[in-house]
Amino acid sequence: MDEETTGDSETLLEKPGLAELRKAVLFRTYRRRWFLLVVVCLLNCSNAMLWLTFAPVADKTAAYFHISMDTINWLSLVYLLISIPFGLVATWILDTVGLKCAVILSAWLNMVGSVIRTFSVISFLSLGSLTYTYLFIGQCLCALAQPLVIFSPTKLAALWFPDHQRATANMISSMSNPLGILIANLLSPALVSEEKDIPRMLGLYTIPAVTACVLATVGVHEKVPPTPPSASATHSTSQPFFTGLKMLLRNKPYVILMVCFGAGIGMFTCFSALLEQILCVRGYSNFFAGLNGALFTVFGLLGAFLLGLYVDKTRQFIESTKVCFCLTALASIAFAVMSRFRNQAVPLALISSLFGFFGFSIYPVAMELAVECSFPVGEGTSTGLIFVSSQIQGVILMLLLQALTVQISEAPFSTCDIEEGGALDWTVSTLVMAGASSVVACFYVIFFHTDYKRLHAEASNAASINKTGTEA
To answer: Which of 211, 274, 299, 398 supports an S-S bond with 356, CB 3.0-4.6 Å?
Structure first.
């Protein structure tokens, strides 16, 4: 193994244990952690693109496959449903089998699913009535990859990055998922101006999936670094899986975070999947809906970047998330009100930007906070349980929002391209979502309090640390 001094840290810590087995543990960072970060980022981005491929062009997709809008929504909803049971399996894989297996398995599921989706639009296969079946099966395989992809950033940051880089690494890899949402919101409407463009769109979306699969298969060789980068990394999988689950469910601060943050992710999932349908009935184009989704994500990435840097320096995880949660609730209320009116492009664009800026910025910080309040439970288990909670709440909320829509027989300004039935009014649905966001924000601000257990554990070992500055 080649080593050279480049400015990162190598730390010497005496490992606690039986007296005769006490020995010095060398803490070292490895440059290949950046390659792993790139692979996980590409996987996250690709999987999010595959999830929201059809949401910005839902009406044209429905017309191409001759199916209803509700059936199109199932292409997004299936991600939530599948990840509920498989989310628990994914947490076990990450904390028991290891990061390497999780990354490679998710890469192959993602790639195979994206390829199978393209079968539905290949004319010489003559699938007939089975076209949607192939599309749905491919989407299901991509959905199986999602929990592994979503859970990996926190595990990667904990295993491969030193304590002063963890929040930033987690932010970069976690925010590659909304980056994929951004790309889908911009690329799908740009590629699909007519129904006949759907095959080209599906073909292009396989490229990042195949690339990520090749990089993961060829380049990921180890599930953990040869030596840990920090004291907490030595305890990253210190608790057995089922013991960790019991500890989490008995941890009051963690349960509150799981419910509140899970609800927040569920609401953002619904917003991303239903935005085009909410706006088209008021006369807004698919392009404008995609633009709003793009602004929502771009400003979310900016907010996450700034907040990630802030908490890396200040460690104010709780204060930051509480402030952002409240501002996100205000933005959701503003969107619910303004989306009722026509010709409000500028206010809607501004609200979508603020909604993303404050909402998305919570994501990587809350994931780090989940690990802090649940240490020494494995990172895959602590973040995975939150994600499963978000998917359950997201399914319930999406079905509820669709049930609360009102069919409009006459909508002269509607730009919705629907063959069956009339346009849908989402007024009640958006107001319910804003109300739910406000209730969750208030509950989180009032009741969530916790100690930073991982940081305290590392601080208790500070006297044993001797920094020498080496990276391998």
So the answer is: 299
343-388 pLDDT, tens per residue? 888 999 999 999 989 988 888 788 878 888 887 777 777 877 888 8
Q: Enter the tokens of residue 184.
A: 């889908």
58-65 vs 131-160: helix crossing angle, rounded to 10:
140
Separation in Å, CA 151 to CA 8, 15, 133, 177, 212 = 26, 28, 28, 11, 17
**Spatial separation of the C-alpha atoms in residues 423 and 421, rounded to whole Å:** 7
- The runs of H, that is alpha helices, within 120-251 are 131-160, 166-191, 198-219, 241-249
pLDDT higher than threshold 70 for residue 472: no
Give CA 334 to chain center in angstroms: 24
Largest CA-CA distance found in the chain, in angstroms, rounded: 82
pLDDT tens-digit map of 404-448:
888 776 666 667 655 545 677 888 988 999 999 999 999 999 999
Integer CA distances (angstroms), 148 to 208, 316, 340, 416, in order = 17, 28, 38, 35
**Gap between the Cα atoms of 46 and 206, Å rounded:** 8
Task: Tell me the three state secondary structure of residue 296.
Answer: helix
| Beta-bridge mates of residue 467 | 11
CA distance 342 to 285: 12
Q: Which amino acid is at 85?
A: P
28: Cβ contacts below 8 Å, ≥ 6 apart: 9, 10, 11, 225, 226, 227, 229, 470, 471, 472
Judge whether 118 and 176 are in contact, CB under 8 Å. Answer: no
From CA 299, how far away is CA 309, in angstroms rounded?
15
Look at the block and give the residue holding tokens 């999830």.
Answer: 51
309-345 pLDDT per residue, tens: 888 778 788 898 999 999 999 999 999 999 888 888 8
Is residue 21 packed enough to be buried (19+ CB in 10 Å), middle (13-18) or exposed (0-12)?
A: exposed
Rounded to whole angstroms, what are the CA distances from 193 to 18, 63, 197, 388? 68, 13, 7, 36
DSSP state of 23: -
**Residue where the block lists tokens 């980022």:** 41
For residues 438 and 275, the answer to whether their CB atoms sit within 8 Å is no
Q: How far is CA 294 from CA 174, 186, 212, in A?
A: 17, 6, 23
pLDDT in tens, 90-103: 888 887 888 888 89
The C-alpha atoms of residue 137 and residue 114 are separated, in whole angstroms, by 10
Calpha distance 118→131 (Å, rounded): 10
